[in-house]
Amino acid sequence: MKSLKYIVIALMVSSCNVLDVKPFQQLPDEGAITDAGSARAALLGTYSQVQDYYQLNFPVLGYLPGDNVRFNGTLNQYNQLDQNALSADNVITTGTWTQLYQVINSANNVLAALPSINDPLLTAAEKNQLLGEGYFLRALAYFDLGRGWGGVPLILKPTRSVADGAGIKRSTLAQTYDQVLADLTEAERLLPETIIRNRAVKNSARALRARLHLYRQQWAEAEAYATQVLSLSGYALVSPYRAFSTAPFGSAESILELTYSIADQNSQWNNWYPSALGGQYTLQPTPEFITQVNRADVGGNRNAALLGTVKVGTTDFVYGNLYSRAAQRDDPAYILRVAELYLIRSEARARLGKLTEGLADLNAVRTRAGVPAATATSADALLLAVENERKIEFAFEAHRWFDLVRTGRAGAVLGITDQRKWVFPIPFNDIAADPDLEQNPGY
């Protein structure tokens, strides 16, 4: 690919100042990362951009094409996702692609500027921390691009003009994941060995590495990195299920969560709640999911946390309760949590033939949910049990669709046998702006 014209233009139009920070920190338009204050503000700006894409767009890509959620509305961009019939100009996929590259560009600015800053207020330890967070956030964005679109253009320097994108061809998925690994390796080296729930630290990098290795079918590495985090006393499953999503936030289950506030709201609840509760009710749990989660041997006590009911006249409306604090609108978005690491390790151990240990990991999650222990006696049975557990445990988080794609099960479970539809289309405007940018087959 000779240029990334549309990506660059989108970045420049949507964020003339790539260091934009919401809601309180703001650099002037002519500002640059030159001292401790501007470096801190720039890094917070990168987190803010991650908040933007994890508030709604990316989670929707993770659950709406799957079988837990359906769309109850008329907007075509949602219907396309629900029906697995995407076009290259779909507003959600296009918007998410742009948001992800905004995160990358913001992180690139931080990574480019920090090494040359000489400010007595910026200690070596803090500089390393900010650099590590920049590498981590870039890794997260490239990982999410890879699992959604396949191999993508790897932009590793700040993009300030159209010319900055020249000569960067689209990479393969393997090369994209190689870059994620390189960034996570550097992030782990630089980040502090501490426990912070809403900023990246060493264990955030280790947990994301466990997920990356799972996607790459590197079972021993996935097991090892999940174990590194699970072996620490500061991380544990909390009971009951979803206790991690009630205030005060930052429970022992949270490895990395995105913090919102009244001034910087998480508005995803609005898509789930019925109008009687102030919402639009455009995203709904499917009838099949409602039946499953209400089964004591499947959902356990999770149904009370995942489903809500409101009566309007004589009609009961069942809704998905992704976030339970609509009045406050400050619920976090969860990027990494302990339950995922248990199920990553269970799946990896099943692949490695460690059935007893893998079953114990699965049952740790099931026990917390009040579900009877699984009794899988073969690797295949354990893998299916893990798949079904992830379906319920992460029902409305950004996992179900990507799980079925990475395991090759989207055809068997969803009936989507055309594997070209297992990745999203590269935005039409990018293709139109640069004929050397290859579209994913089938679009």
Describe this structure as you would to a colleague.
The protein is mainly alpha-helical. The chain is built from 18 helices and six strands. The protein has helices at 5-14, 36-55, 57-63, 76-82, 91-113, 124-149, 173-190, 202-215, 219-230, 269-272, 287-293, 302-306, 338-351, 355-368, 379-393, 400-406, 410-414, 428-433, and strands at residues 69-71, 254-258, 283-285, 307-312, 315-320, 333-337. Strands 1-3 form a two-stranded antiparallel sheet. A hairpin with a 2-residue loop joins strand 4 (307-312) and strand 5. Helix 6 (124-149) packs parallel to helix 8 (202-215), helix 7 (173-190) packs antiparallel against helix 8 and helix 13 (338-351) packs antiparallel against helix 14. The protein is globular, with a radius of gyration of 21 Å. The protein starts with a helix and ends in a 10-residue tail after the last helix.
What is the mean pLDDT? Answer: 90
Question: What kind of sheet is the major sheet?
Answer: 2 strands, antiparallel
Question: What is the overall silhouette?
Answer: globular
Rg:
21 Å
Percentage beta strand: 5-15%
Strand arrangement within the widest β-sheet reads: 1-3
Derived from helix and strand composition plus strand pairing, the structural class reads mainly alpha
N-to-C span: 18 Å
Give, in order, the helices and strands.
Answer: HHHEHHHHHHEHEHHEEEHHHHHH
Helical fraction equals 40-55%
**Tally of DSSP β-strands:** 6
pLDDT < 50 stretches:
1-30
* Number of H/I helices: 18
